[in-house]
Each structure stands twice: as structure tokens, then as C-alpha cells.
Design brief:
The complex is a heterodimer of chains A (115) and B (374). Chain A has three helices and five strands; from the N terminus they run ββααβββα. Chain A has 115 residues and is α+β, with helices and mostly antiparallel strands. Classes of the chains: A alpha+beta (115), B mainly beta (374). Chains A and B meet through helix 2 of A and loops of B.
């Protein structure tokens, strides 16, 4: 299975100048996609995942148009047609920690769209 | 996009003032007269830089920096050509052990280690810990005695986070290291990091019901002179203190300052009795008192303090200077430098007697480190 991954431009230097590439995960979830990234691009992986294996608080991962925080987290399924997007949240930029707004339950309209 | 920095090209005897900000690092370069300054930067544009250090031990001339941001975490990078190029971020990952339950958030301090070991390097990080390298910074490991300290569950973050911001080594007793963290207070090891004991006797915790707990103080900065290492000066979250016994006990020295609240503290490079601070008006306001920008200096180890204000604005000024944003160079008379959260860098080339604005318009200043190039 090949999954297309899209990175923000801020990580281009960590990805040998690429912001869009394919990975071959060993399984069919985002967790396996990130594991494949760890093998292929450890510098990129370290910038979006902590040493404890958790997504950094201000990083959002989308499969298609769905934020995985609302669709199963790292267990969110991927398939051969999936595009995974790594996108910084709008909650960063402060020198101090602020609660990531992406932790708040999504508005009902988002749920309706997903359905 | 800002122009790419080119680094600086200092000669022996020149001064480099490294300035970390919330949006990158800047290198200010002057000759020994310290009258004119060339500014290079931003390095790491858009990233916060809370720790910088120039390591000239063992014949090297290495700049260390810790760029990072809330999105992608913090890295430790080095430059061996005064900022013209920086090492790749993946070259040295600073990581807590898997399973420890904690992840690196920020590097607050990069500190040369034991004098006789030029490859010994220490990092103070958030969440509270020290990382140690014995191979010149190629690899680091967390100091287990702090990582597993029994007080760790009780340490709580201050406004700046749960930071370990001060590391002092003892040139006379190589196994002794003193650290300070907010909150938590002062801790010291005498066995190379295996065990750490709280050293806060006499230091107030104004924000707790028990004003004098064993630990939990919000210490903002500790400095000492390596020629008299056991004498320590401490800027507390309310309180100015001195210890003459490596932190075993502390004595109040807030004699004649407009406020004993503040963050920054810097040691004179030669005189073991001379220390600089920037008092701030209360923990709720955190600006220079009375709208006047004043550095206070003691030349008698805290028995008295005098305002140093010649050249600094004395009306309607509400500046904040953070804990690592003041430093001295090693020339005589000493250069003293500080940066403000409003992006100004001030400097004195005469022990603090007179001041001039070296640079305005920078992002919010998080750290200032000065060095004379060998």
C-alpha cells in the first residue's frame, strides 16, 4: 500500500526538500504511516511526534479532509487512496503553552459534514 | 522572508553578544571598544531561541543554540563558523527515554561542564531535567538522579513553564553541580548527579501557605563567580539572596532596591562581589518600577545596591527583562548587556556606569549571552 503524505513547507528542509511523497506503511492506520515515516524520515517524524510517541499538541494530522483527532486518532484507517496531511494548528505561535483549541469537541456542523 | 544571515567574522579580542528572541537569534559583533555593533540575523527565523552559548574550551569556537517552536519541538544545533552554517537538527536529538512519560519541550540553558573536561556539556531543559554530554555534544543523556527525583511529582510550572534554567559547576569539586528550577528551587549534587538535595533554607515561597518549605520555591536565577564558586547570588520570585556555603543556607540581601522581584541577574567577570540585577515591580506587573529603566549593581556582595541609569530612559518606560536576558563579557572594564521583551538590547562598556541602545526593533528577547573571542 502506498499513502501520499503532504508536509507543511516549514518541514521541507527536514524532508530533503520535499513536501509531498509516498510512504509504504506496514499496516492500514495512521500509526503505521507514522511508523513508516520514522523509518524513512526520522527528522520529520521527530518534529511532529514526541519521544513518547504522541502527536505534538499543535500538530494536526488529516486523512483526506478529516482531522484524526475526531476520527480515531492514530487508529484512523488509511488505504491505498489516502492522502495524509500534516498541518500545524492555528493554536501555536505563543511563547507560552496555550491549550490547543483542537482538543475542544468539534462543532456539530463538522460532524454533520463527516456523515 | 528575512534575509539569510551570513554569520559574523570576529577576530581575537572581539565581542559577540548572542541574542535569543521569540522569533530567532541575532549575533551582535563589535571590536573590543564596543562602540559600534554589527547585527547578524535572524538565525532560525520564526523560532524561539531560549538558550545560546559560545564554547571556547579545548581550542574550539562553537556556538550552540536551541531553536524551537510550539509546533515542531526544540532542537540543539551548533555552528563552528560563527553562524554562517548550523548543524542539521537530526544530528543530535535531545530525547527523554521512551516510557518516562515526559517529552522535551524547551532547552533553557546550554552550559559548559567541568572545566578540566572540555567535552563535558550540560543542558537545562523543560520539563525539569539536566541532559549531559561527555563527547563534546555529539550525544546527550538525561541525568537519572533528577529524572527520577522523588520531588518531581511536586514540582509545578511557573509562568515560563517547568524550566530548569540555572546550572552551576564547581571548579574545585568536580562532582558538585547546583541547579535551579521554577518551581522547585535550588538543588545540589555532590556525587556527579546520582543524588540531589534541595538547598532552599532561607529562601521564601511567597505564593505558598508555608513560606519556607524544603522545596517548591520559584527561583528565577542563580549566579556565582568561578573564582569564588561557593558564594552564590539568587534572584527569587520575591527575594534577593546570597549564600556563602554553596547553597546550604541563604541570607536576604535586598538592601536598597526598589523591588526584590525580578528575573535577570549577572555576575561581574572579575570582581567576585559585583552583581547586576534588573528589579521589576511586582509579580502582577513585571515591569521596571516607576516607569524607569534601571539596572542595579552591588559591589559589596549585596550589602547595598546602587541604580545604574545613565543613558537608560527614565520616564514612561515599562520594560521587562527575562531571567537569561542579562550577561557580561570578560573585558575590563566589563561589558554588561541586557535585552527586553520589547526587543531592545542595551549595553554598557564601563561596568554599567553608562548605557547605550545597541539595537531596537528585535522580537521579544529571551536570552543574552556575551563572549570575548579567544
Amino acid at each position: 500500500m502506498n499513502v501520499v503524505v503532504n508536509l507543511p513547507d516549514a518541514l521541507r528542509a527536514d524532508a530533503d526538500g520535499r513536501v509531498r511523497f509516498e510512504l509504504q506503511p506496514a499496516g492500514a492506520t495512521v500509526r503505521e504511516v507514522l511508523a513508516a515515516m520514522r523509518r524513512a524520515m526520522p527528522a520529520v517524524h521527530h518534529r511532529i511526534v514526541t519521544e513518547q510517541g504522541e502527536l505534538r499538541p499543535h500538530i494536526n494530522v488529516f486523512v483526506g479532509n478529516e482531522n484524526i483527532r475526531w476520527s480515531g486518532g492514530l487508529a484512523t484507517p488509511v488505504d491505498d487512496r489516502s492522502e495524509v496531511h500534516i498541518i500545524p494548528a492555528v493554536s501555536g505561535g505563543s511563547p507560552t503553552t496555550i491549550p490547543a483549541i483542537t482538543r475542544v469537541a468539534p462543532p456539530a456542523t463538522v460532524r454533520l459534514n463527516r456523515a | 522572508m528575512p534575509a539569510s544571515p551570513m554569520g559574523v567574522h570576529p577576530e581575537s579580542g572581539d565581542v559577540v553578544v548572542m541574542v535569543g528572541t521569540t522569533k530567532g537569534a541575532f549575533l551582535l559583533h563589535s571590536n573590543g571598544s564596543r562602540r559600534q555593533w554589527h547585527v547578524d540575523g535572524p538565525h532560525f527565523p520564526g523560532e524561539e531561541v531560549y538558550a545560546l552559548m559560545m564554547d571556547q574550551r579545548g581550542g574550539r569556537q562553537t556556538l550552540w543554540a536551541s531553536p524551537g517552536n510550539p509546533f515542531f519541538g526544540t532542537a540543539l544545533v551548533r555552528s563552528d563558523d560563527f553562524g554562517a552554517t548550523w548543524s542539521p537538527r537530526e544530528e543530535r536529538a535531545i530525547k527523554f527515554p521512551e516510557g518516562s512519560g515526559v517529552s522535551l519541550k524547551r532547552i533553557w540553558q546550554i552550559q559548559p561542564g567541568r572545566t578540566e573536561e572540555p567535552d563535558h556539556l550540560l543542558l537545562g531543559v523543560e520539563p525539569t531535567c539536566v541532559f549531559e554530554s561527555t563527547d563534546g555534544g555529539d550525544t546527550f543523556r538525561p541525568v537519572q538522579g533528577l529524572l527520577e527525583h522523588e520531588h518531581r511529582p511536586h514540582w509545578t510550572p511557573g509562568a515560563g513553564g517547568m524550566c530548569l534554567h540555572t546550572i552551576l559547576t564547581d571548579p574545585e569539586t568536580t562532582q558538585r553541580i547546583l541547579i535551579a528550577c521554577s518551581t522547585g528551587g535550588v538543588y545540589r549534587t555532590d556525587d556527579g548527579g546520582t543524588t540531589w538535595k534541595a538547598r532552599n533554607v532561607g529562601v521564601r515561597a511567597e505564593f505558598l501557605p508555608d513560606k519556607h518549605p524544603e522545596f517548591g520555591q520559584c527561583v528565577h536565577k542563580v549566579v556565582h563567580h568561578r573564582a569564588k564558586p561557593g558564594r552564590l547570588f539568587l534572584q527569587n520570585h520575591w527575594g534577593l539572596y546570597r549564600s556563602d556555603d554553596w547553597g546550604d543556607t541563604w541570607t536576604d540581601i535586598a538592601n536598597g532596591v526598589p523591588s526584590d522581584f525580578g528575573f535577570a541577574m549577572a555576575m561581574h567577570p572579575v570582581d567576585t562581589d559585583t552583581v547586576y540585577i534588573v528589579p521589576l515591580e511586582s509579580d502582577m506587573f513585571r515591569c521596571c518600577p516607576e516607569g524607569r529603566m534601571r539596572v542595579y549593581r552591588t559591589r559589596n556582595a549585596g550589602d547595598s545596591w546602587e541604580p545604574m541609569q545613565d543613558g537608560l530612559p527614565q520616564g514612561g518606560v515599562y520594560e521587562t527583562v527575562l531571567r537569561d536576558s542579562m550577561h557580561t563579557d570578560a573585558l575590563s572594564p566589563a561589558g554588561v548587556y541586557f535585552g527586553t521583551r520589547s526587543g531592545k538590547v542595551w549595553g554598557s562598556a564601563d561596568d554599567g556606569e553608562t548605557w547605550s541602545l545597541l539595537r531596537d526593533g528585535l522580537p521579544s528577547v529571551t536570552c543574552v549571552k556575551a563572549a570575548v573571542v579567544a
